[in-house]
Amino acid sequence: MESRVNYIIVGIFVVLFSIGMLAFAFWLGKYGDEDEYIYYKAYMTESVSGLSREATVKYRGVDVGIVDKIAIDLENSDRIILILKVKKHTPIKEDMHVTMKYYGLTGLAFIEIGGGSRDAPLLKPVDGEMPVIKASPSVYARLDESLSSLTGKLSQTLDSIDLLLSKENISNFQQSLSNIKDVSENIKSYQDEIEKLLVKGVDMEEDIIAASSKVSEASDRVAVAASAFEKSFSRGDYDIRGITAKSLEKFDDLLGSLKVLTGEIEEAVISIKNSPGDLLFKQTEQNLGPGERIQ
Predict the structure, then answer these.
(1) 127 belongs to a structural domain
(2) 202 and 243 inside one domain
(3) pLDDT of 130-178, one tens digit each?
């Protein structure tokens, strides 16, 4: 009887001791390392689908902690609050940011801490408040935003194309092509007049060249007369009256030629000034002189 009581006491002691050891181990695992971690807060504005509590927190690919809490921000329902439990000696800088990433195609998400410069100060609590790490959108969020923007621009482009190809614009375009065709046909119908204008231009150029030749000849005649006068005067021939009579006669002829030439040029200029369209659409009849005939 006595040995049986001793076994019962030993059994109870072993059970209690085992329960105590398990409770101590649980407490040690749960709270014993609290001093080895620092809690940070992050605000996400995108969906955190696939992210769960106890999800891994990585620092440039190295596991440094876990996601301790996920909750909706009651002050701003567009944001999600993440509480990150990070190892104490992890160098979290003020200019670093957190990004949500995914494990391949499994859909499971984790938090990546990255960015930051080497000389930036460490992120520390302010007035006892939990330090906040800035959040940046994930690759999927940026891709979704880009696709949404691209879809909007594509829709605007299609609307513009529809407006451009409207029945009214197509009709106006066809009318413009018809007008261009009419203008081309009108220009083609005036081809003969254009050729005549070019011929008249050539004839006018020849007339001007001929007139210039006459002026040159007259100048040569004046030079010959002056040379003859100079030679006669140098030889002592002082019959000024005879010399001047011949020279004046030649000079009068020259003045007459110049007067006729000047009159012809003035008539041509006045004719073109008063009716420039005659060059294209009207052929002016020439006034024939005595004994002249149309070429």
Answers:
(1) yes
(2) yes
(3) 899 999 888 877 787 788 788 888 888 887 887 777 778 788 878 888 8
**How many structural domains does the chain have?**
3
Q: Residue 200, exposed/middle/buried by CB under 10 A (0-12, 13-18, 19+)?
A: middle
Q: Are residues 176 and 214 in the same domain?
A: no
**Beta bridge mates, 132:** 41
Residues 178 and 196 in one domain: no
* Sites in the chain below the pLDDT cut of 50: 1, 32, 238, 280-281, 283-284, 292, 294-295
Percent of the chain residues topping a pLDDT of 70: 63
Question: Which H/E stretch holds residue 20?
Answer: helix 2-31
Global pTM value: 0.44
**Residue 221 and residue 160 share a domain:** no
* C-alpha to C-alpha distances, 271 to 166, 200, 206, 267, nearest whole angstrom: 52, 14, 18, 6
Strands (E), the chain: 37-44, 56-59, 62-72, 80-87, 96-102, 109-115, 132-135
Distance of CA 56 to the CA centre of its chain: 45
Q: Copy the structure tokens of residue 275.
A: 């009716």
Residues 128 and 179 in one domain: no
Segments forming the whole domain that contains residue 277: 191-281
Does one domain contain both 117 and 90?
yes
